From TrEMBL:
Lipid bilayer topology: Multi-pass membrane protein
Claim: Oxidoreductase is one of the keywords in the record: no
Protein name: Flagellar biosynthetic protein FliQ
NCBIfam families cross-referenced by the UniProt entry: fliQ
Pfam (any one): Bac_export_3
UniProt keywords, alphabetically: Bacterial flagellum, Cell membrane, Cell projection, Cilium, Flagellum, Membrane, Transmembrane, Transmembrane helix
Cellular compartment(s): Cell membrane; Bacterial flagellum basal body
Family: Belongs to the FliQ/MopD/SpaQ family.
Transmembrane portions of the chain: 13-39, 51-70
Domain of life: Bacteria
Main location: membrane
Protein's job: Role in flagellar biosynthesis.
Organism whose genome encodes this protein: Catenovulum sediminis
Length: 89
């Protein structure tokens, strides 16, 4: 039971969280930036104009990337169960 093992597990977990969150957040940020530039150029200050496209893109990212994300989480969980012997004994 060495500290390096726990550091590796924590590093892999943090990378998994960053990867899964960025899968949903990055497309939303890009669409939000595009809509904000459009609103600034046309002087339209409507709140729903910025909310609705980001909502649609976020839902689309979850729908299309959800299968990949679930597979990544399953692979990580299986690898954690395989490392139980390394951590415990």
């Amino acid at each position: 039971m060495q500290p390096e093992v726990f550091v590796d597990i924590l590093q892999e977990a943090m990378f998994m969280v960053i990867l899964l969150v960025s899968m949903v957040i990055v497309p939303s940020l890009i669409v939000g930036l595009i809509v904000s530039i459009f609103q600034a150029a046309t002087s339209i200050n409507e709140q729903t104009l910025s909310f609705l496209p980001r909502l649609i893109v976020t839902l689309a990212a979850i729908i299309y990337g959800g299968h990949w994300g679930i597979n990544r989480v399953m692979e990580y969980t299986i690898s954690m169960f395989a490392r139980v012997q390394q951590v415990v004994g």
